[in-house]
Amino acid sequence: MTEPPHAQTGRRAWIAALLLLPLLVAGLRWASFLPSVIDWDESLYILQAREWLRGNWPITGVWDMHPVGAPAVIALAFMAFGESIAAVRLLGVICVAATGYALIALVRVMGGGRAPGFAAAALYAGHSILLGGLSSNTEILFAPLVVSALALALAGGPPWPRLLGMGGLIGIALVIKPVVAPEGCLAFALLAWPWLRARRWRSLALAALAYLGMCLAPTALAGAVYALRGEFAEWAEATLLAPFVYAAAGVTLETALYRIVTAALALRWLLVLGLLPPLLLLRLPDAALRRLALFGLGWLLVGVLAVTAPGHFFPHYFLILLPPLSLLAAVGLFAAARLLAERRAAPLALGLAALVALDIVGGDLQARLSRGFAMGTPDAPRRIAAIVNDELRPGEAIFVANYQPVVYFLTRAALPTRFPFPVHLTGSFGSLAGVDTDAEVARILAARPRFIVLDRSEWFSMRPSAMAMLTEAIEEHYELAASFVEERGTVELYRLLEPD
Fold this sequence. Notes:
This protein is mainly alpha-helical. It has two domains: 365 residues, no CATH class; 117 residues. The chain is built from 20 helices and four strands. The termini are far apart.
């Protein structure tokens, strides 16, 4: 039977919307291609990826307390698009678009319409520019994997293929960052619920073992590779033990509350709209929206557990909440739209979702324009790198004492240490590295790196012992080559004095 013309038109419009989603995401995240630095962690992952492609492996060559997944994904982006900051930010666009598609799939497998799924994708894309999400950070990289695993858990069909697919997705996400564990458990619980209700204990136990094996396989493979290289102890200490030491340190209640409040203010649209489904649960117009509201609320609670588990509440941790909040906000928009204008609910809700996303981008643009129109001019790390590259001799090292590791990436300099992340070397988390970091700083300064980069706004974040050694070395052996004014303070570039 031939489809009516309006159905064919609707299908073509839907296909066009799906094809245009990556362009929408790229338009919302355009500002990510401007700065060299958005987030400290991303700077380190970029450096790790570059060094890895040159044979200098993460952890043993470039130390960090995170698993190797993030630098691995960025290294793949470098292989595909070339070694540049733009390649990393394009990776972010791809991941946000993929998360949008996964949200659409999740809504569809739960019986929701096309429009709520697309609204959730648009809301996620718009809010992904907040809280450091413009960078290709771990929360942006693993989001499509987690949302896809949840969509698989809720989809119909034979359970075992879905279980293995979920395990593979969560396993890869875990090797990017272990905080996905609570959401991985949620995915298994959703799939295993029928077995539990039917008391099929044997099937449940076999499924749990298979899922656990799939989830742990990528991490075990990484450990095996390092073991074959004779570096298992370093890998285990960095990726298994250091995160527990880090989480145990935590932050004060005052700091935690401050970071929670500022994150809530940034996500105010999602929080307000996301509160509508629970408040209107009994008045939601159809069963699909009620299912989505209940699922979204449970998912949000699990996400809160993932955010709070590390105990530090850095802004980018709250990006974990974006997918469930975007889903709840989309349901809230459609519930409100149907109550206000039942026949025009879909276009009204999609229009409101677009306005919310544009408001977020407009706020970001306003902040950027307030600094002047020269948004595409070289920023401080690029200007530092230009001076360094102009004067550096082959094989010479520089020392970025308390500034962004991306400066190493932008220069041709040799790394002076396997601990290029300042907070691990000169900052307050020196105990995580498992070495005498004061001795490491002394060794670097004794080697007389050609340049030293010093961020005065981060000066008092360093350990007093590191501050004293840097002060002495700079006074005796270096001259000020240039200084750069940033919003937070002055960054100074020191040049080694030539011997008389």
